[in-house]
Amino acid sequence: MSNNKSLDIPYQEWPLKSQFNIAPLGMAATDFTHQPHRHHHFQILWFTKAKGRHMVDFVWYEMEDNMLFLLRPGQVHQLDCEREGHVIFFTERFYFANKHDKETLYDFSNLFDNWHGYGPILIGENTAPSLLGLVDLMSREHRSPGANGRSIVKHYLNAFLLLAEREKKRNATDTMRPLHHDSRVVQLRRLLEKHYTREHQVAFYANAFALTPKRLNEITKETTGRTVTELLHDRIILEAKRNLAFSHKSVKEICYELGFEDPAYFSRFFKNNAGISPQDFRDIMFK
């Protein structure tokens, strides 16, 4: 960008006119597509063919064919690539419509977890045909829903997510980064997302599990390679970067919104964790 003013980062609503939609990637092009933007819902981007790059939360990824990106609500991304493929949008409410769904459908929280380091999933040639078949089934049912259409789409989506998780684990094995799962860490993510702007002490989160801070740190370290404090600081810094880069808010306003009382302390906190001051980060983003 050529000017020194940041822009309020937009939430792209299209094409989610309901709680679920599926479309070819080419149809998902709007005025927002090539700008940093984010969504209120979960998004699956499957690039069957791609050339260029894709930015997710300030990191650019060089594109390859059969690359799958899983985006949580609020993640910032930007497309700068030639592409073919499919995009799926859905809300958590669509997937878990009631208590019965919570008990019978796959919990995708771990699949969209980026605590092991965010990265796309490379889809193997043996899995791609199965995913393509599920995309076709979801598209057909969504366009012309019959009896129990919503439930049928959810089960097709469920199968798609299960295959994606298997590919994610295969990718981790190929790169010698085995993934560990602990339901308490999934719950911790939800607590952090809800309270990170107000609760900055590990004791608050440990109390929610009736654990000592030391024990909760041991669990998260084993599962994610990070302590609770590191996970919390990572989340605060990410939100600070989003606001510095994509809003008109002052550093002082961002400081207060993230639960800090002293702007000078917040600036030191940001620099210690990001390696650069808040103002310098904003200036670099808009050179």
UniProtKB/TrEMBL annotation:
The keyword DNA-binding applies. Keywords: DNA-binding, Transcription, Transcription regulation. Residues 186-284 form the HTH araC/xylS-type domain. One of its GO terms (molecular function) is sequence-specific DNA binding. The keyword Chaperone does not apply. PANTHER family: ARAC-FAMILY TRANSCRIPTIONAL REGULATOR, TRANSCRIPTIONAL REGULATORY PROTEIN. This is AraC-type DNA-binding protein. It comes from Chitinophaga eiseniae.
